Recover the amino acids of this structure.
């Protein structure tokens, strides 16, 4: 199987869907790589991170549209076009910029179907960069998927690896509801095996990235990779840790989580988001409510602290939940005796 | 209006300081010692300085952008503190927690660089409201890129400033590009015409001519200070570097890149003007250049030697109080 990056996997998914369906269009700031420069029409970048590279050349600028810097208009145009017959991919360069345009997303796109009595179909995909790890500071580093996931009507996708990124992107484009596809900027260069052909991954279907019997870790996006690392380390200490990658934080695959906790009796939730109203708190409360009798230890959470993301790289490193913090929390939870 | 010797020396020193700050940072960034990413202001010095030479440190405010180093220096933010901030050190003006795109110094009337395009104009509106309410005589100036010009926040701030007759100058810096996209592609109509549509004065000046900016700024700032309300200045500007340090700029032609530096260098233009008119001589300008270079050596050396923030700094200053 070909080995490609997370960035290439997302790019491939978009290109394949654009070939398959002429209604798919891409819009956003510099997604075609910049327009109107003195050097002429060539693709300069293909998005600031190169994720849309090559699309303008293959599909033309009618379908790959560079927009002004105007996120409300981009998101609204995406929502309105989706409502009226296109299948747009609207890029919000960094998820942090959602503050500029959230109305178009959560009051408009997310609510059309419900408010309009089930008559609306809004096949909008919003692709956006999330997360810390680049020293990009407080307004370019946040993991905001928990509060997006709290909005009824929105679906939220948080792929942790190239294979999932491709399958989930294709599903997002084909899905008839508004989907926010969260690309983690620290994963863009991650390599993995990705089939050449098109495939989809269903939303609301978690993946078990490690099998184990002593403790369950639930996570999503970048953090899954640290959880896997911690599980591998702990395997050397004879601890058997199961890792569940939610893959989508709306819808959530609660059943897979419950089933695992019934088996292991111990739960750790790892989330890059700030702790209050996080995915970690959502999963914890759902497990406490539904599989309480199976628990042999208090549920533990490893999250970012309740602070903005600091610019200084050494502070950012402390901010990010990492393998060492996860492994320590696993050990403590395993040592707990009722 | 003729500037005094002191005014000329001050303006030149500030512009040269900005230029060398940015050029030195560019070199250091390429070495990999500067964290994050940085957007350089080289080429646009005449705009920040042309405005800020009219502003007071204590009662006047500016709002800035992701390309904020020049605005900070022009408004009097400490150069060494800025350098340390960009190096993410505890001695930085924001303790290393903000970085290049969040340098702020409220004591100097600097409301912050801003990593959100279009983030500052509404905030500058607030500073103007404070000035009007408290009758400080203060003026508030947001700097706005050609790309930012298209944000709703900018349109909203322009309208509100007119409705409330606030003491403001909307300073647009049209450097022809927003990231990799040309203003000629992304900005419809003209910015000056947008001002007129709101019923406020608007004027366009050459941003590589310090004296032109300085004169337009004087008029606009005086008007705002004297209760005449907001206005717009659009300066044509020349971005010497890429969008960020390290941007290969394949979207710009070689001729354009050559021309911005050779034909539109505001510092060269300034030197030519003042020496031809015998207002200042080459030697004193060279002496300033040398002093500025020494300052940059010190600023970088001190920033690199400065301590990192403490681990516990991660948790401080989220709130004033929080129980
Ligand atoms: C709300 C928001 N959208 C997009 C960006 C990404 N971005 C950063 S700078 C920039 C271009 C800004 O262009 P302009 O306003 O002309 O300023 P210049 O870079 O030329 O100084 C963009 C798109 C951002 N930081 N914030
Ligand atoms: Mg610009």
């Amino acid at each position: 199987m070909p080995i490609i990056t997370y960035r290439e996997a997302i790019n491939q998914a978009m290109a394949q869907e654009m070939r398959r369906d002429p209604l798919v269009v891409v819009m956003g700031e510099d997604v075609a790589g910049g327009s109107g420069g003195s050097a002429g029409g060539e693709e300069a970048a293909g998005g600031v991170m190169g994720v849309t590279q090559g699309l303008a050349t293959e599909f033309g600028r009618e379908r790959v549209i560079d927009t002004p810097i105007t996120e409300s208009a981009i998101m609204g145009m995406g929502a309105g076009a989706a409502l009226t017959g296109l299948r747009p991919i609207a890029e919000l360069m960094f998820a942090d910029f959602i503050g500029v345009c959230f109305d178009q997303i959560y009051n408009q796109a997310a609510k059309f179907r419900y408010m309009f009595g089930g008559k609306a179909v809004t096949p909008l995909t919003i692709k956006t960069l999330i997360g810390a790890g680049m020293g990009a500071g407080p307004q370019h580093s946040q993991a905001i998927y928990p509060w997006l996931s709290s909005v009824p009507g929105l679906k939220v996708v948080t792929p942790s690896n190239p294979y999932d990124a491709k399958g989930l992107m294709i599903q997002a484009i084909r899905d008839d509801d508004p989907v926010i596809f969260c690309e983690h900027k620290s994963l863009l260069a991650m390599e993995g095996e990705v089939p050449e052909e098109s495939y989809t991954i269903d939303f609301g279907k978690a993946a078990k990235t490690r099998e184990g019997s002593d403790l369950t870790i639930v996570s999503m996006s970048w953090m899954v990779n640290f959880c896997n690392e911690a599980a591998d380390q702990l395997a050397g200490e004879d601890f058997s840790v199961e890792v569940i990658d939610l893959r989508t934080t709306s819808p959530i695959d609660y059943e897979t989580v419950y089933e695992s906790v019934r088996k292991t009796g111990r739960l750790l939730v790892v989330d890059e988001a700030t702790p209050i109203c996080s995915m970690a708190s959502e999963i914890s409360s759902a497990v406490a409510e539904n599989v309480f009798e199976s628990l042999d230890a208090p549920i533990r959470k490893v999250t970012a602290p309740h602070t903005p993301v600091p610019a200084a790289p050494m502070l950012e490193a402390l901010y990010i939940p990492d393998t060492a913090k996860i492994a320590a929390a696993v050990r403590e939870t395993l040592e707990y005796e009722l | 209006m003729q500037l005094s010797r002191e005014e000329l020396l001050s303006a030149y020193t500030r512009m040269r300081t900005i230029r060398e700050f940015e050029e030195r940072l560019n070199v250091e960034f390429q070495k990999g010692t500067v964290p994050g990413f940085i957007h350089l202001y080289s080429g646009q010095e005449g705009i920040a300085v042309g405005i800020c030479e009219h502003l007071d440190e204590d009662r006047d405010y500016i709002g800035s952008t992701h390309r904020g180093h020049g605005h900070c220096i022009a408004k009097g933010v400490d150069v060494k503190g800025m350098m340390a901030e960009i190096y993410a050190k505890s001695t930085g003006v924001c303790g290393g927690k903000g970085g290049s795109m969040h340098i702020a110094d409220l004591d100097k009337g600097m409301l912050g660089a801003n990593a959100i395009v279009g983030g500052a104009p509404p905030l500058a509106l607030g500073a103007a409201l404070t000035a009007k309410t408290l009758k400080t005589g203060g003026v508030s100036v947001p700097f706005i890129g050609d790309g930012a010009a298209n944000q709703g926040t900018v349109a909203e701030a322009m309208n509100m400033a007119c409705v409330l007759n606030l003491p403001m100058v909307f300073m647009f810096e049209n450097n022809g590009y927003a990231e990799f996209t040309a203003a000629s592609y992304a900005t419809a109509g003209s910015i000056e015409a947008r001002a007129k549509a709101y019923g406020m004065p608007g004027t366009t000046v050459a941003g590589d001519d310090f004296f032109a900016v300085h004169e337009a700024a004087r008029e606009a700032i005086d008007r705002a200070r004297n209760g005449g309300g907001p206005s717009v200045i659009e300066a044509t500007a020349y971005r010497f570097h890429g969008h960020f340090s390290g941007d290969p700029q394949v979207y710009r032609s070689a001729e354009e890149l050559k021309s911005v530096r050779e034909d539109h260098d505001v510092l060269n233009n300034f030197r030519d003007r003042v020496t031809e008119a015998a207002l200042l001589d080459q030697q004193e300008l060279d002496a300033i250049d040398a002093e500025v270079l020494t300052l940059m050596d010190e600023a970088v050396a001190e920033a690199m030697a400065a301590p990192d923030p403490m681990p516990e700094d991660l948790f401080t200053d989220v709130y004033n109080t929080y129980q």
Remarks:
- Chain A has two domains: 3-193, 207-335.
- The interface with chain B takes residues 29-30, 33-40, 42, 44-45, 48, 66-73, 96-97, 99-100, 134-140, 305-308, 310-315, 318-319 of chain A (CB under 8 Å).
